[in-house]
Amino acid sequence: MRILLDTHILLWWLSDDRRLPVPIGRALADGANDILVSSISIAEISIKTAIGKLRTPDDLLTQLRAAAMSLLPFTVDHAIALRDLPAHHRDPFDRMLIAQALAESLTFATVDPACRQYAVQTLG
User: Fold this and answer.
1) Lower Cβ count inside 10 Å, N or C end of the chain?
2) What are the backbone dihedrals phi and psi of residue 91, each rounded to the nearest 5 degrees, phi first?
3) 85: number of Cβ within 10 Å
4) Distances (CA, A) of 75 to 58, 111, 118
5) Which residues pair with 97 in a beta bridge?
6) Confidence band (pLDDT; 50, 70, 90) for 110?
7) What gap in Å lies between CA 35 and CA 52, rounded to an integer?
8) Which pLDDT band, with edges at 50, 70 and 90, does 123 fall under?
9) pTM of the entire predicted model
10) To the nearest 5 percent, what fractions of the chain are helix, strand and coil?
11) For residue 64, which phi and psi values (nearest 5 degrees)?
């Protein structure tokens, strides 16, 4: 399975947070799955860290590489996919992640109920 992580899932996984749902934790630990982290999540983390809304480790990229997660760039095709998304969710970061998951046929790991309103396969 190819899994795209929502930003909160990424942060919970890296910090071993108890809020990470067990099924998602199992899927992330399963070496048969391809785990993807979007450049959008890195941008969201950077912006929220810069304005003081979030505290994150300075070695985030090192941790991602150590966890064998693949980085997914945000492309023009992903941006165009945003046009067809219904307005279920107002968060631009989540909308971009959903557009990527749909465009790439990825399973989206999230606990956000607003994200589940889209026609995207979810895990969580």
Assistant:
1) N
2) -75, 115
3) 16
4) 26, 25, 20
5) none
6) very high
7) 28
8) very high
9) 0.93
10) 50, 15, 40
11) -60, -45
- Reported as a single tens digit per residue, the pLDDT across 36-62 is 999 999 999 999 999 999 988 788 888
Tokens of 59: 């070695």
Strand segments (E) across 11-114: 34-38, 70-72, 107-109
CATH among 3.30.1360.140, 3.40.50.1010, 1.20.1640.10, 3.90.228.20 for 2-123 = 3.40.50.1010
Q: Is the dihedral of CA 23, 27, 28, 29 positive or negative?
A: positive
Residue type at 116 in one-letter notation: R
State how far the Cα of 85 lies from the Cα of 74, in Å rounded to an integer. 16
- Distance in angstroms (rounded) separating the CA atoms of residues 61 and 95: 23
* Three-state DSSP state, 96: helix
Alpha-carbon dihedral 53, 59, 77, 105, rounded to 10 degrees: -100
Residue 64 has pLDDT above 90, yes or no: no
